[in-house]
């Protein structure tokens, strides 16, 4: 049985979140389409917020 791939927008959000937690700049967004880019930036914001509030330690 094949595993279903995650939605592209969910994947963009997840990648943005990982970038935010890792401390990367939002200028490193790899997406150019508006929907994917906005999802990536939303994930990035949440990742940065979590990192700044001390939820994630590197």
Automatic annotation (TrEMBL):
Record protein name field: Ribosome modulation factor
Main location as per UniProt: cytoplasm
One BP annotation, GO: regulation of translation
The gene coding this protein: rmf
Domain of life: Bacteria
Coiled-coil regions listed: none
Similarity-based family: Belongs to the ribosome modulation factor family.
The organism of origin for this protein: Shewanella hanedai
Keywords, comma-separated and alphabetical: Cytoplasm, Translation regulation
InterPro entries, per database record: Ribosome_modulation_factor (IPR007040), RMF_sf (IPR023200)
UniProt subcellular location: Cytoplasm
Higher taxonomy: Bacteria, Pseudomonadati, Pseudomonadota, Gammaproteobacteria, Alteromonadales
The protein's role, per its UniProt record: During stationary phase, converts 70S ribosomes to an inactive dimeric form (100S ribosomes).
